[in-house]
Each structure stands twice: as structure tokens, then as C-alpha cells.
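In the laboratory, one determines a bound structure by crystallizing the protein with its ligand and collecting diffraction data. In a computational setting the workflow is compressed into a single prediction: the sequence and the ligand go in, and a structural description comes out. We illustrate the idea with cytidine-5'-triphosphate.
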Amino acid sequence: MRKVITYGSFDLFHEGHYQLLKRARELGDYLIVGVTTEHYDEYRGKLNVMDSLMERIENVKKTGFADEIIIEDHIGQKLEDIQKYQADVFTVGSDWVGAFDWLKDYCEVIYLERTKNVSSTMLRARNYKILKLGVIGTGRIAHRFYPEAKYVSGVNVEGVLNPHLESAKRYKEQFGLKFGTDRADEFWEQIDAVYIASPHDTHTGYIRQALEHGRHVLCEKPLALSGKEAKELYELASAKGCVLMEAVKTAYCPGFQQLLGIARSGVIGSIRDVEAAFTKLENPDSRELTDTSFGGSFLELASYPVLAIFKLLGIDYEDLRFEAIRDEKGIDLYTKAYFRYKNSLATAKTGLGVKSEGELIISGTKGYVVLPAPWWKTQEIEIRYENPGQNEKFFYKFLGDGLRYEISDFVAAVNGNEKKEHKLKPEESVALARVMEAWLGCRE
Ligand code: CTP
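The predicted complex, in C-alpha cell form:
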């Protein structure tokens, strides 16, 4: 029996996929088809797959050409499979010519002519309207946003709004956008969705304007500085049929999703403590260290550690208190927020101009999980036990500046994929705003 094996995402199943599978089956007597998981696609940098793994498997199954369907979820798996299933032929489309020649040491490698004028990428562009996005604010994060958005299909950054026209124009020129304006009415007219990266205290005003105009919103953290305000904005978004997402990048990155699965799976028992830190040395003249109203380490950085705490322990803490070291202007340089839950404790530590180890440590009744800095770009997870011989380490990819994950989920949510919105639920985002509110309140 001649066994043939092939792989693909098979997203938005099309004629090219059908022809490929048909011809692959004709190369032998038994066809094994490997379908990629979302996680592996993300790892490969393919962030725009629309159909779920189950839908993609179903579509391959329906062709009747696959004798066996397997799941491809990691690099290096093709060789493992070829040996495990004793495949005689490995085949893929001609877009891959040369890429798999190294497998010739193990089996025959055949590149099949690709069907012309069709691809999942083409269908995605046709089926889903390209989202016209505008950026508000032109600071550091907005500069990282544009290059990251380039990695996501289905979205185009059209223009920028900044009350300082010169800054808007500079940003527009730098990234070759269609427009740069200081006029809000002009801005809303030309876009379907907005990314808000303006100063913290202006977020809620812009979100409200955007939603009133029926525009979808991706807003930098902290989304709001009061729980009530955040809650009202999510209610307004829902009433207007718009997506509102808080851009805490860690929430959307693949490694962090894996962490949640590991930490909550029971391998470390019940979680009793979460210690999360994020510190940064910042230029003393920076806005963060000079703005006496909305500067300081906590407002700037706490979204990350508090996100980890909420995702691991939930939002129903019983008590929250803060300890801070402030400069002469009253700006917090180093702050610890202590959360008490019914059966566990948590600390969020932030520093600006104070540097410490930026770790995330999750302690449980059977072991603990350690993520070294920068854990907010989750790439490394270690599970440690009483007996160090059992320790395990896992590695994950975090591509570029990592904003592409939240942008990709935002675009998917706008296109009706609600699953993508839930990596940071509205109630969790509201709870984050409540923490900011508590912090601002304790300052007075
Ligand atoms: N394929 C093909 N002809 C096409 C499109 C794809 O023969 N017109 C083949 C690919 O070469 C691969 C298999 O179908 O062997 C699965 O490809 P996949 O990457 O899932 O499909 P694409 O349409 O190429 O997806 P994308 O546009 O996302 O890259």
C-alpha cells in the first residue's frame, strides 16, 4: 500500500484545496491529511484563519479523499508523522517548491501544481470587507501599531487624528496614510474602526464619540479610570452593535493563553498566590514621570500584572490595598497592590525609575509556575515542583511587538467572530478600570 501525506490550513475551503487533495489521493492508495491547529498557525505567523479547526477538518472530510485526518500542531511534526505513519509520499502545492526537499531522505517528495487564481487569502479579502481603521494619538505605542497592523489582513490603517495637526501630519507622512487631521468630524467620516492610543484621561471621551458614530473601538490600556464609566461604555458598545476591546496585548498573545491552560489545569494544584511585576527605567522628562495627574508607574504598567491576576484568580477579590513610594511631585515610582481573595493572595508590582525582576510567579498546592521577564510577552513558562527532577519548561513564540495578536482578534471580532473577544471579557476590563479607580482614589 502506497501511503501519501499532505498538510494545510484549508481555511475557507476552495477549489484549489479540492484539486490538491484529489491529486494527492491519486498519488497512492491511502491519503493522510494534516490540518493545522489555530495555535500552530499563530506560531507560523498566520493570524487570519477564519474557520475553526473543526470546520476545516469537516471540509476536508466532506471531499471523501482523506482516509485519515490528523492534526498538525508543532514544528518538526511532519518528519515525526512520516515515520510514524510510514508515509511513502509527502506532497504539497507548488507554492512550496524546494521547502520540503530535506524530507527526501525519508520519503518521496512531490510538489503538485497549484490551482491558479484561488487562495484562502484571496477569499478572505473578498468575503470580508477591509476594515478602514483610524489611529488617535501619535505617541510611541501608535508608532508600533502601524507596522504591526501590516501583519494582519482585513484591515487598513487609513488616517490619524491628533489635536496637534503637525503631529498628525508627521505620522501620516511617516506611514504613508491617506489622511492626518485635527478635526474629529473629518476623522469619523473616513473610518469604520479606531485604535485609541491617546493620553489615558482622554480614552473614555474618544470611545464615547467613536461609539456614538457607530465605529468599532480598540483602546489602549487603561481603557477607563472608573469602573462605572467602563461599564457604561461596554453597554453603549453593545447597544450600538460595535466591538469595544481593551488593548492589553498580553491577553491576546498565544503564550499567555497557554499559561492560563497550564496554571488552571490542576498541575500545580489550587492556585494560592499570584505575584506579578512589571518595572521599567524611564526618562525623567517623560510624560510618565512628569504628569502629576495621570503619570506614575501604576497607571502606566499595572494593566499587565492585574490582567494576570484576574485571569488566574478571577475578578471577585475581597480586598485591595496599595503601598507606594512617590517622588516629591507625588508621582508613584514604585507601587504594590495587594489583593486578597477567599483562598488566595496576589500582588501586582509596578516600577518606573525603579528596576526589579519582572517575574510572574503562580504558586499552588502542588507546585508553582514561573515566567521570567518579560512575561507580558509570554515566551517561556516553567513548572516547578518540590522534586526539581519533575520540572518542565515550555517555549512559545511572541512575534514582533506583539500588537498583531490583539489587532487580529479585533478584526475577527468585528467580522462576527465573538470567540475572539473573550480573551479579555468586558467584565474583566471593567474590573481593571475599577482597580485604576481605587488607586486614584487612595491617592487623594
Ligand atoms: N493549494 C493549491 N492551490 C491553491 C491553493 C492551495 O494547490 N490555489 C494547496 C497548497 O499548496 C497546500 C494546500 O492546498 O498544499 C493547503 O494550502 P493552504 O495553505 O491551506 O491554502 P492557501 O489557499 O494557499 O492558503 P493561504 O492563502 O492562507 O496561504
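The pocket of cytidine-5'-triphosphate is lined by residues 8-11, 16-17, 20, 92-93, 95, 114-115, 118-121 (CB under 6 Å). Keep in mind that any predicted model is a hypothesis to be tested, not a measurement.
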